[in-house]
Design brief:
Layout (H helix, E strand, L loop, with lengths): L4 E7 L4 E4 L5 E14 L5 E13 H10 L5 E8 L3 E4 L5 E4 L1 E9 L30
Length: about 140
Amino acid sequence: MYQRVSLIGRLGRDPEMRYTPDGTPVTSFSVATDRRWTDASGQQQERTVWFRVTAWRRLAETCNQYLAKGRLVYVEGELTEPKPFQGRDGEWRASLDVTAREVKFLSGRGEGGAPRAGEGGDETAPILDEEEIPF
């Protein structure tokens, strides 16, 4: 069996990289996806769904180096089983966790996030315009 999830959204915070005891890099970041629609009464509605994304090995290093809060990304990976939790307001929610297989950077350094410390002005990460996305 095989399952795959595809997301396009913006990072909610800067990625955090750490290492497993055997030295394998792992980077975590959150991605917000938005859905907008007009309801039956003509009112604009919006729903944001948050995903916690985990990238491993070389992909973890690349994400940590080039991503920052506010950047637009495409993430493809495997959705792990949702984990229920009770929020501060007492409402029950589910944590949606994705293990990334692929991450594409859809916005450049000047779009949707300030450069992080130590980043120069030259662009080495792959950049796509939203119009280049094939779907």
